[in-house]
Input
Amino acid sequence: MHRLNKYIFLLIVVFVIITCSTQKHYKTLSFFFDGVPEPLSDSLKVQNDTLDIDSLHILALLKQNSIPEIFYHVPFKEKECASCHDQATMGSFIQPQPGLCYQCHDDFNTNYKTLHGPVAAGFCTECHNPHQSKEKYLLIENGEKLCFTCHDSEEVKENQFHNIAEETNCVNCHNPHGGENQFVLQKGACFKCHDDFKNQYKYLHGPVAGGFCMECHTPHIEGTGNLIRKGQDLCLYCHDKELVFKNENHQDIDDASCTECHNPHGGENRFILY
Ligand code: HEC
Ligand code: HEC
Ligand code: HEC
Ligand code: HEC
Ligand code: HEC
Ligand code: HEC
Ligand code: HEC
Ligand code: HEC
Ligand code: HEC
Output
C-alpha cells in the first residue's frame, strides 16, 4: 500500500508537471527543491496597469545609479602620450609642470597679476587629472572639497565674510588660478555682499563702474580703515596732480581731502560731487 501510494503520487506529480500552469508548476517544483525563484506573484501581475509608473521609477533609479560620465583630456584621448611623457622611459616627463601644461595652455602669468599658490608653484595636477576625470574640467574633486584638500575648512568658515556669505561656491568669488590681488578674487566678488552702486547713482566713478574696488580698498582683514591710501594720495594715484590743480575749483584745497567734495563712488553729476 505504502509503495502504491508512492507510485500514484509520482504519477500525479508528472501529470501536474506536464499539464499545469507555471504557477502550479512552480509550487510543485518548490515542493521538491528549495530555492526555485518565485515567478511574478498574482499581486504583482495585477499591477500590470501601473507598469508605466513602475518603469518610470526604474528609469529614475537607473539614472541615479548610472555610470558617471567621464571627461577626457584631449591629448590623452588622442593618444598623444608623447606630448607629455618621454616615450623612451614612459615614466618621466618631457619637462616639469607648469611648463608641461603651458605647451598648449595660456601661461597664467600673462593673465593675472597674482597667481594662486599652487599655480605659481606649478602644481597643476594637485587639482587636475592629466588624463581623465568624472568631474568637469578634469578636476580631482568638485566644489569646496577641492579647496579643502589644502585649506583648513574651519579656518575658512570662521572668516566673517565667509560666514555671512549666502554664496558658498568658492570659485564664484575666487579664481582658482589667479587674480588682480593676493586674494585671487573674481571680478564682481564684492557685489555678492555689497551694492554695485549702479542703481544708486546716475554717474559712476570710472573704477567703480569697472568693478575695480580693490584699487582703493584693502581687504577687510587688514582693518586699516579699509582704504589703501589716505587723503589726496588716494585720488592722485590715478589722477594727474598738475592737471587737477590747474582746475580753478581746486585753488584752495591744499590740505583738503578730495572726498570732502567728491563722492568716491558716484553721483548725480559727471563730477561726482556731493
Ligand atoms: C597632458 C599631459 C599628459 C598626457 C597627454 C598623458 N599623460 Fe600620463 N601622466 C601625466 C602626468 C602629469 C602624470 C602624473 C600624474 C600625477 O602625478 O598625479 C601622468 C601619469 C601617468 C602614468 C602613471 C600612473 C598614473 O596614472 O598616475 C601612466 C602609466 C601614464 N601617465 C600613461 C599615459 C599614457 C599611456 C598616455 C597616452 C594615452 C598618457 N599618459 C598621456 C601627463 C600626461
Ligand atoms: C598637447 C597639448 C596639451 C597639453 C600638453 C596639455 N593640454 Fe590640457 N588641453 C588640451 C586640449 C586640446 C584641450 C581641450 C581644449 C578645449 O576644450 O578648449 C585641453 C583641455 C584642458 C582642460 C579643460 C578640460 C575641460 O573639460 O574643459 C584642462 C583643465 C587642462 N587641459 C589641463 C591641463 C593640464 C593640467 C596640463 C598639464 C599637466 C595640460 N592640460 C596639458 C591640450 C593640452
Ligand atoms: C587650486 C586648484 C587648481 C590648480 C592648482 C590649477 N587649476 Fe586649473 N582649474 C581649476 C578649477 C576649479 C577650474 C574650473 C574653473 C571653473 O569652474 O570655471 C579650472 C579650470 C582650468 C582650465 C579650463 C578652463 C580655463 O580656465 O581655461 C584649464 C585649461 C586649466 N584649469 C589649466 C590649469 C593649468 C595649466 C594649471 C597649472 C598651471 C592649473 N589649471 C592649476 C583649479 C585649479
Ligand atoms: C594644492 C593645494 C591648494 C588647493 C587645492 C587650493 N589652494 Fe588656495 N592656496 C594654496 C597655497 C599654497 C596658497 C598660498 C598660501 C599663502 O600664501 O599663505 C593658497 C592661497 C589661497 C588664497 C589667498 C590666501 C591668502 O591669505 O593670501 C585664497 C583666497 C585661496 N588660496 C583660495 C582657494 C580656493 C578658492 C581653492 C579652491 C578652488 C583653493 N584655494 C585650493 C594651496 C591650495
Ligand atoms: C562675504 C561678504 C563680503 C564680501 C564678498 C565683501 N564684503 Fe566688504 N564687508 C562685508 C561686511 C559684513 C562688512 C561689515 C563688517 C566690517 O565693517 O568689517 C564689510 C565692510 C566693508 C567695507 C567697510 C564699510 C564701512 O562701513 O567702513 C568696505 C569698504 C568693504 N567691505 C569693501 C569690500 C570690497 C572692496 C569687497 C571686494 C573685494 C568686499 N567688501 C567684499 C562683507 C563682504
Ligand atoms: C576711488 C576710490 C574708491 C573706489 C574705486 C571704491 N571705493 Fe568704496 N570707498 C572709498 C572711500 C574714500 C570710502 C570712504 C568714504 C567716506 O569715508 O566717506 C569708501 C567707502 C566704502 C564703503 C563704506 C561706506 C559706504 O558708502 O557704504 C563701502 C561698502 C565701499 N566703499 C564699497 C566699495 C565697493 C563695493 C567698490 C567697488 C564697486 C568701491 N567701494 C570702490 C573709495 C573708493
Ligand atoms: C561671497 C564671496 C566669497 C566666497 C563664496 C568665498 N570667499 Fe574666500 N574670500 C572672499 C573675500 C572677499 C576674501 C578677502 C577677505 C578680506 O577681504 O579680508 C576672501 C578670503 C579668502 C581666503 C584668505 C583669507 C583667509 O580667510 O584665510 C581664503 C583662504 C579663502 N577666501 C578661501 C575660500 C574658500 C576655500 C572658499 C569656499 C569654501 C571661499 N573662500 C569662498 C570672498 C569669498
Ligand atoms: C584707480 C584709478 C582711480 C582712482 C584711484 C581715482 N580715480 Fe577718479 N577716475 C578714474 C577714471 C578711470 C575715471 C574716468 C575717466 C574719465 O571719464 O575721463 C575717473 C573720473 C573721475 C572724475 C570725473 C572726471 C570727468 O572729467 O568726468 C572725478 C571728478 C574723479 N575721477 C575724482 C576722483 C577722486 C575725488 C578720487 C579719489 C577719491 C579719484 N577720482 C580716484 C580713475 C581713478
Ligand atoms: C572744494 C571742493 C573740491 C575739492 C576738495 C576737490 N574738488 Fe575736484 N572738483 C570740484 C568741482 C566743483 C569740480 C568741477 C566741476 C565743474 O567743472 O563744473 C571738480 C572737478 C574735478 C575733476 C574733473 C575736472 C578736472 O579737472 O579734470 C577731477 C578729476 C577732480 N575734480 C579731482 C579732484 C581731486 C583728485 C581732488 C583732491 C586732490 C579734488 N578733486 C578735490 C570740487 C572739488
